[in-house]
Amino acid sequence: MNFKEWWKKLEYWKKGFLVGLFFGIIRIFLWGFLSTTKIPILRELFGLEFDFICHSFKLGAGEPCGVLFWIWFAIISPILFIFFGILIFYFKAKYSRKNLK
Which residues contact 92 (CB under 8 A, 6 or more apart)? Predict the structure, then answer.
């Protein structure tokens, strides 16, 4: 069984979980690469510039902001990627052409 056949047999939520997990992990690797870059627009595009959340919760720089960053970046953000991946594949399965006929 090759990858294409295996992928077709997966249920929509498993596909969404795998795709969301993949992009969540890619984002963590991009953060490691882009955190050393001097181009701030790249960090902001990938949601890696975290000052706005620290200021919105009125946290100063330092440990509270760092803890909030890791809670958001390492836990909540990958879960959101997985959730949106599942939603995309759910609607793709529900409204595909073969189901609308």
Answer: 12
| Torsion angle of C-alpha atoms 48, 50, 53, 55, degrees rounded to 10 | -160
- pTM, 2 dp: 0.64
Domains of the chain by residue range: 30-94
Per residue in 45-73, pLDDT (tens digit) is 655 555 666 666 666 656 667 677 777 77
Task: Kindly report the backbone phi and psi dihedral angles of residue 6, in degrees, each rounded to the nearest multiple of 5, phi listed first.
Answer: -60, -40
Beta-carbon contacts of residue 24 (< 8 Å; ≥ 6 apart):
77, 78, 79, 81, 82
- Give the Cα separation of 48 and 32 in Å (integer): 10
> In degrees to the nearest 10, what's the CA dihedral of 22, 24, 30, 32?
-120
